């Protein structure tokens, strides 16, 4: 059994609108508007004769588009930026060499080195290593040293460890001696 849907009749909305428009009694509307207009005070009538055309003009005239600033770059425009992407430990120039303090020492971690071996090789106290491990943190930068990583440290005048800095992947973690003899960590 073939069931066909009945097509809806096409409605000519333009013709329907013309019929509605022609059925309006314009004389009656004109009389209603004039009676209400005459009920208004003269000052209000004058204000409306100025404001209504002005409002209609403002609605018809398009607003100018806001101008874009010249500084903003379009998405397709490429801008060249000169950035030095090398880490501070790799940047060795004459000015940095002259400003380097004799108190700072650097050690590059070799294959198979542990932090204990780094401390032994540089004559640092193991008690300082134990104090550092207590404030290491959840990311474990001391426990996870890798080959090629830079370990910088500064000694006090007495020869004790004052500051220890670990650099890895352009990030730096610094441990420093507190006034009570323990260590603190900054990142």
TrEMBL record:
Domain of life of the source: Bacteria
This protein's name: Cell envelope opacity-associated protein A
A Pfam entry, by short name: LysM_OapA
Domain (LysM) ranges: 105-153
GO molecular function: peptidoglycan binding
PROSITE patterns: LYSM
């Amino acid at each position: 059994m073939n069931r066909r849907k009945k097509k809806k009749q096409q409605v000519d909305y333009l013709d329907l609108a013309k019929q509605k428009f022609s059925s309006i009694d314009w004389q009656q509307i004109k009389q209603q508007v004039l009676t209400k207009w005459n009920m208004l005070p003269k000052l209000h009538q004058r204000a409306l004769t100025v404001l209504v055309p002005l409002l209609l003009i403002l609605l018809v005239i398009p607003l100018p588009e806001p101008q874009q600033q010249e500084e903003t770059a379009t998405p397709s425009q490429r801008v060249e930026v000169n950035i030095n992407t090398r880490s501070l430990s790799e940047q060795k120039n004459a000015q940095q060499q002259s400003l380097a303090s004799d108190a700072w020492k650097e050690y590059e971690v070799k294959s198979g080195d542990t932090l204990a071996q780094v401390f032994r090789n540089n004559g640092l106290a193991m008690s300082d290593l134990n104090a550092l491990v207590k404030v290491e943190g959840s990311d474990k930068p001391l426990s996870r040293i890798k080959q090629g990583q830079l370990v910088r440290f500064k000694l006090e005048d007495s020869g004790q460890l004052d500051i220890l800095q670990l650099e890895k992947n352009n990030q730096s973690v610094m441990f420093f001696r507190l006034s009570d003899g323990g260590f603190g960590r900054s990142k």
